[in-house]
Each structure stands twice: as structure tokens, then as C-alpha cells.
Design brief:
It is a single chain. The strands form 7 sheets. Strands 23-25-1-26 form a 4-stranded mixed β-sheet. It has a 4-stranded mixed β-sheet with strand order 2-15-17-16, with helices on one face. The relative contact order is 0.15. Helix content is 31%, strand content 25%. The chain is built from 14 helices and 26 strands. With 440 residues, it is of the alpha/beta class. Residues 425-440 have low confidence and may be disordered. The chain binds uridine-diphosphate-N-acetylglucosamine (UD1). Uridine-diphosphate-N-acetylglucosamine is lined by residues 25, 28, 96-97, 123-130, 164, 166-169, 190, 194, 309-310, 332-333.
Length: 440
């Protein structure tokens, strides 16, 4: 798919303050969860990004009446007229998060006939944890062509052990369990902040949920859930991306809405690089002042509170010009290094060994044409473009738009020279394309 490109010039030190939007990974599942209720719910701080618009379309398709005030970031969803439990493959294929409608449909109707989900090209991303645990809750699931036909008379509570704390599987089981008969226990559950934001919404609906250490979610099924009003949590991945962009360019930024406890390991690693970070006394508000002599750091991705896989790519971009060698280990997804090959095209020294990327800092990167394979790869390539000499053209811009609400405008506000070019058909050579061999 070619929906245009981002043109990125070498940037001066980015400086300033920006507002953060609501978390994409929270809002997608929270919109899906509204199908658990029949009535009008209101969500605030909803980002206007392509994946969010796709989830809105999915609910409309089911019969929800939706009004999105994009200026105010306020989404009103009336699910009173939702009567369908069928979502076509075409709609399901638009995002990975579409699979999250299954738990809500099963809880409300006892049926979910859905296509298989789409999503980023970051590994196999199977849905076996979702399917086998729905089955444990009494759901019979038949798979035909690219569709799943799931049906249950009455969801029964179960003791569910996740072999890996999958975010999506935890969320789907959680939603189904809110209406199951009895008490469901999800052991080794994902406890990402976005899962906790979903739990906050479900509790507002009237669900009975308790989170216990270590990583166990206990849900007592109830007969009825009611509509809610909720303010979506800030996007820690947008916050992390902005901190990294500013750090890469040697600048300074203050994010007043960001809570440090949701970014602890990321802040630790940025500090280890030499960047100076201060946090407000209540843990809110992050100020970063970049060092001009960044040191390479090694890190390993993992479930929260580990280093988020979604910030692995942008953090790799920072390592490209740091002094020393960084070993980056990806443990969440088995195939999430596409951006490394694109960074190599810009002059980065990166060696891939199975799930490890070994990055040795070089003196400079140069602008060229690169292609983003997923949302966070696009962030990495934009950051690399800002520290490269010359012009960088980033293709695969639909990924950027899926994950962010006009992040390029926030970067512009901080001083970046970046522009988004929408085009279905590209005419002539792209900027940066002839510069592949150029030296600064
Ligand atoms: C969510 C996030 C995504 C983030 C990821 C990990 C949303 C919309 N997306 O994706 O941004 O990168 O969490 O933090 O919230 N797995 C299985 N079987 C399953 C389910 C998952 O093997 O049934 C594997 C996946 O292939 C992957 C790992 O578990 O290797 C983690 O995936 P999961 O946590 O489920 O990610 P998502 O919910 O898809």
C-alpha cells in the first residue's frame, strides 16, 4: 500500500513542549468494550488516528451510532441498536486490534462471527491464546476459510493460565469474563497500563474486577453492564517517541502530562545514554535535556514494566550515532527488526543475530529513501532522518497515520523540518532518492 511519504530533513536540536494524545492501545480496546453495554458512552482524549477510525467503523458496522468530535477528541458511542455479531473479513483485516471485538460480542450476544484480524508485519502474531481460552469458557469455535464462528449459550468462568502475558488475549478474556457465570482468574495476565485503563472502564460499567500480584486478574461475572464516561490515559508510546526524537537531536522537551512510572525503564535507558531527566515531585511531568555525547546502551524488550517492544525501533535509531556498541534483544515479537535493514541503508552499522541487533555507533547517517514496515518502524526512520545528513524519504506512511495523530505536526512545533505528503500515485523521483551515495 502506498499512501504517500514523509520527507524529513536534518534537524536542529528540537526544543519545546507538546500535548500528548490518548493512548492508541487503550482506546482501541475501550471502544470495542462499549459493545458490552447498550446505551450511550462518552470517551474523552480520543486520538484521531487511522486505527481508531477503523475501530469506529467496525462498531458502526455492528449498528452503533457514533459521533466523533475530532476537535475536542470526544467520542460518543451509542450501542443501543447493536444487533449484529458478524464482522466481515474485509473489516477485520484492517487492524490487528479488531480481534478485540470477539470478547465483547461473546459477552453480549454469546456469538461472534468474525474474519481473522490484520495488523503490522511484526511476526506471526497468532491468536491461539484467545481461541483456546474462549474454548475453556465454554465457547465452541469453528474456523472456516478466513473466518471464525464462535458461539456459547452461557459463558462459564474458568481458571485461565496464559503461557505468555499477551495484551490482546488478556483483554479479550477479561471482557468475556465480565458476563461469565462465576469467577474467572487470569494468571500471568498482561498488566500493561492500557490493560489497566480497560479495567478502569469495565469497573465503571459495573464489572467486578480485582488485580492481584503477581499478574493475576480476578473477574466475577455480573448480569448487566452500563454505559460509561471515561478519559483515555496519555499515550506513553507517543511520549517515549517524542523523548527519543528530542534526545536524538540534542534538544530539550517537557511533557507535562506524562507519568514517569509508565516509562521507568525507558527513562533509565535514556539516562544511561547520558541524557538528563527530571520528573515532577508527584511523578508527573517529564523534562529531558539531551547530552551532546550520547553513549550506546543495551536493552531487552519485555512485557510491562520492561522496555516496551513498541519503543525498540525508535530507541535503535538513537543507538546508530551513539558512542559504543548496543545490543538490543527483542523478546516480545519474533520478527521485529525490519527497520534495522532500512537504517542500514542510511549508513547505520547493525548486525542481526536471531533476535538480537548489534548496533555500533557510526559518525553519521545519510538521507535516502526508506520504507516503514510497521507503526514504530516509521518512528525510528523519522528519528534517523532527523539526525541524518540530507533528505530522508520514508515510505509506508500509512503505518505512521495508523498509530499517531499528526505526530509530524508536533515534531514541526519542536523545530523539525518534516512534511507528510499524501499521494496514491507518486510522480517522479522522490526527494532523497538520488542521495543514496551522498556524503555530508
Ligand atoms: C499489543 C499492542 C502492541 C504491542 C503488543 C505487545 C494493541 C492494540 N497492540 O499487541 O502495540 O506491541 O501488545 O506489548 O494493544 N501471541 C501468541 N498467541 C496469541 C497472542 C499473542 O503467540 O494468541 C504472541 C504474539 O505473537 C507476540 C506476543 O504473544 O509474540 C505478544 O503479543 P500480544 O501481547 O498479544 O500483542 P498484541 O495484543 O497483538
Amino acid at each position: 500500500m502506498n499512501n504517500g511519504y514523509l520527507k524529513v530533513e536534518h534537524a536542529q536540536a528540537l526544543t519545546g513542549q507538546v500535548e500528548l494524545v490518548g493512548a492508541k492501545n487503550a482506546v482501541l480496546v475501550i471502544i470495542a468494550s462499549l459493545v458490552l453495554t447498550a446505551g450511550k458512552s462518552v470517551l474523552h482524549n480520543v486520538p484521531v488516528s487511522a486505527d481508531v477510525l477503523e475501530m469506529i467503523e467496525l462498531l458502526r458496522h455492528l449498528g452503533a451510532v457514533i459521533f466523533f468530535d475530532t476537535e475536542k477528541h470526544m467520542l460518543t458511542v451509542d450501542t443501543s441498536l447493536v444487533r449484529s455479531w458478524t464482522v466481515s473479513s474485509t473489516i477485520m483485516q484492517k487492524t490487528r486490534a479488531s480481534i478485540l471485538i470477539m470478547g465483547a460480542l461473546l459477552a453480549r450476544f454469546g456469538k461472534a462471527h468474525v474474519g481473522l484480524p490484520g495488523g503490522d508485519a511484526i511476526g506471526k502474531r497468532p491468536i491461539d491464546y484467545h481461541v483456546k481460552n474462549f474454548a475453556k469458557m465454554g465457547v465452541s469455535i469453528r474456523s472456516e476459510a478466513d473466518c471464525l464462528y464462535a458461539e456459547v449459550d452461557m459463558l462459564s468462568a474458568a481458571r485461565i493460565i496464559l503461557e505468555y502475558p499477551s495484551v490482546g488475549a488478556t483483554e479479550n478474556i477479561l471482557m468475556a469474563a465480565t458476563r461469565a457465570h462465576g469467577v474467572t482468574k487470569i494468571i500471568n495476565a498482561a498488566c500493561e497500563p492500557e490493560v489497566l485503563d480497560l479495567i478502569a472502564v469495565l469497573q465503571k460499567m459495573g464489572a467486578r474486577i480485582v488485580v492481584e500480584t503477581p499478574a493475576t486478574i480476578i473477574v466475577e461475572g455480573v448480569d448487566f453492564l452500563h454505559p460509561v464516561e471515561h478519559h483515555i490515559m496519555f499515550d506513553r508510546l507517543e511520549a517515549g517517541s517524542l523523548l527519543m526524537a528530542v534526545a536524538a537531536t540534542g534538544g530539550e522537551i517537557y511533557l507535562s502530562q506524562a507519568s514517569a512510572d509508565l516509562l521507568d525503564v525507558v527513562l533509565l535507558k535514556l539516562e544511561e545514554m547520558g541524557h538528563s531527566i527530571t520528573v515532577g515531585s508527584d511523578g508527573k511531568g517529564i523534562h529531558l535535556k539531551a547530552t551532546s555525547t550520547p553513549q550506546a546502551v543495551s536493552f531487552k524488550t519485555g512485557p510491562f514494566p520492561g522496555f516496551p517492544t513498541d519503543l525498540q525501533a525508535p530507541m535503535m535509531a538513537l543507538q546508530c550515532l551513539a558512542t559504543g556498541t548496543s545490543i538490543i534483544e527483542e523478546t516480545v515479537f519474533e520478527n521485529r527488526f525490519h527497520h534495522a535493514y532500512e537504517l542500514q541503508k542510511m549508513g547505520a552499522s547493525i548486525k542481526i543475530e536471531y533476535n538480537k541487533a548489534i548496533v555500533t555507533g557510526v559518525e553519521y547517517l545519510y538521507g535516502t529513501q526508506v520504507s516503514a514496515s510497521d507503526i514504530r518502524a516509521s518512528t525510528a526512520l523519522v528519528i534517523a532522518g532527523m539526525i541524518a545528513h540530507g533528505t530522508t524519504t520514508v515510505l509506508g506512511v500509512h503505518h505512521w497515520k495508523r498509530g499517531y495523530e499528526a505526530l509530524e505536526k508536533k515534531l514541526q512545533h519542536l523545530g523539525a523540518v518534516i512534511s507528510l505528503h499524501e499521494a496514491d500515485v507518486l510522480h517522479g523521483p522522490l526527494p532523497g532518492i538520488q542521495k543514496e551515495q551522498a556524503t555530508p
